[in-house]
Amino acid sequence: MLREPDSHPQIRNLCSHLQQPPPTKQTAGRVLVDSLRQHGVDRVFCVPGESYLEVLDALHDASDDIELIVAKHEGGAANMAEADGKMTGRPGICMVTRGPGATHASIGVHVAQQDSTPMILFVGQIAREQVGRDAFQEVDFYAMFGKLAKWVVEVTDASRMAEIVARAFHTAVSGRPGPVVVSLPEDMLVDVTDKLAFRTSAIEPKVPSDSAIAKIREKLANAQRPLVVVGGSGWCQEASAQLAIFAKAWNLPVACSFRRQDVLDNRNPQYVGHMSLGMSPALKDAVVKADVILALGTRLGDVATGGYTLLEVPVPQQDLVHVHVDATEIGRVYRPSVGVNADILATISALANVAAPAEIAWAGWTKRARAAHEAFSLPPTRVSEAIGVDLGVVMQHAAEVLPDDALVTNGAGNYAVWLHRFYKYRSARTQLATTCGAMGYGVPAAVAAALRYRDREVLCVAGDGCFLMYPQELATAAAHNVRLITIVVNNGMYGTIRMHQENRYPGRISGTQLAGPNYVALANSLGAAHAEQVRTAEEFPAAFARARAAKGFALIELVTDPKQVAPVMRLK
User: Fold this and answer.
1) Cβ atoms 193, 161 nearer than 8 A
2) Beta pairing partners, 11
3) Which of 98, 429, 434, 504 is deepest in the core (most CB within 10 A)?
4) pTM of the entire structure?
5) Buried b (16+ CB within 10 A) or exposed e, 524-535
6) How far is 359 from 352, CA to CA, in rounded Å?
């Protein structure tokens, strides 16, 4: 949701500036930067390009209000902006140049689309008079981003810059949040206009009707085996707190959808697990056997539903109540018996004030689901021939020593199964991970987190293949003197693909081996305050303590068993 003008320090500063007589005309590039300030933007992630020099120059004059973070790769910059949007609920801002810059940055747009994250990508473009000639680095951004972004637009008239930027902010946060792409022809940016920056109106949350809340209450009150499934991007600290109140009052089992584990404190007696890759068999069974499922904010995607098998398509056997901020998501895959188009905070706040039945029929159901989750969260006993670091022990230790508000990031790979299964998330918006399964996300996201919250601890967990996508962004961390820890899980392979390869083509290794660098030396070359290699779980606590004490970014390489591709799968 967009903030009111007096709720952000940058906007308050701007208001004091606006007491002075404003200029009557500005270049479109300067109108763009003023529009960012009007909307409370305090950080822009970029890789510079000659196609938007006018904007870069305007940002020089706005440096007191807007911090410019120069990433080392456009993919890294876009991932940083997406992560910033995840943390704040406001559009993360990325700027890149035309052609290669935009194609590199497209990964962040895809992540934002699948993860329902508000984000705006500004792309420098060739001059208007050259369009259609296949000019140097020319790309049709309407065609390129048309299916990825919520809205793609090219500003061809300087007088419309303020209007289009305001609409971009509105679009990014309205309904199901997502990415907007704004193309900026370089000659247009230096055109002068008297249409100056303004701020779009704040969006009021869509509140559920009394009848909708009554229907939800009736469905739950008559249930024998209810299950609440939470997910989506609308969960702030207040919403999570209201969820905890609601779940406790009704003693409802709550499962989090894929990579939304931070919605409810995992220590909560009503938390029963994570509907993820490597999902607990007991949780799968609970989903199938539930008679009422209340889905709050989640789209009920393929990962959370076991490839659309745990709930029957299009009409589930379970009585489905689906609450989502975007009406088009309700009934897209599953037809609910009750569909509620409403804001998550407004809905869960209303539900938290609804009286629970005097007698709760499902108390034993909830207790058994919680007990099954707790058993599943204990690292299994290792086989005698296992070598290297036991990742289950590592994740458990990290959860025990890190504070509740620590931010944890990861990309994609089998290593993340250990993280999701054995780490306990305890606070909303502390899990930065892609639901679209993009490798390389962890390091840029950690940099963005460390910049956004310099007083909080940040941990990135990355497989060796995942880490090598954007290791150079640790140089960005060093440049801005932020503290974060990166754990590199080194098994010398693309573990997820190797697992699938073994299942389908046993003994035929092709393309999945990985020869990496000396990770400690690489980290030191990028400016690490501390870096070391760990070969056993027993060595990890002391190494982690040293990394946490470092005054800059730290890296720990964990040498793991290449045969242990998942907690319960071992190669022969």
Assistant:
1) yes
2) none
3) 434
4) 0.94
5) eebebbbbbbbe
6) 17
Distance CA 131, CA 138 (A): 7
Q: Which residues contact 183 (CB under 8 A, 6 or more apart)?
A: 123, 125, 141, 152, 153, 154, 155
- Closest residue by Cα to residue 486 from 539, 550, 564: 550
Q: How far apart are CA 326 and CA 299, in angstroms?
A: 10
Structure token pair of residue 517: 């660098």
DSSP label of 92: E
Mean pLDDT of 395-403: 97
Residue 264 has pLDDT above 70, yes or no: yes
Token digits for 536? 């056993």
E strand spans, 400-501: 407-410, 431-433, 458-463, 485-490
| CA neighbor of 340 nearest in space, from 213, 234, 205, 226 | 213
Instruction: Tell me the CA distances in angstroms from 199 to 164, 267, 395, one per residue in order.
Output: 11, 41, 44
Helix/strand/coil (H, E, C) string of 241-300? HHHHHHHHHHCCCEEEECCCHHHCCCCCCCEEEEECCCCCHHHHHHHHHCCEEEEECCCC
At residue 202, the pLDDT reads 81
Q: How many CB atoms lie within 10 A of CB 323?
A: 27
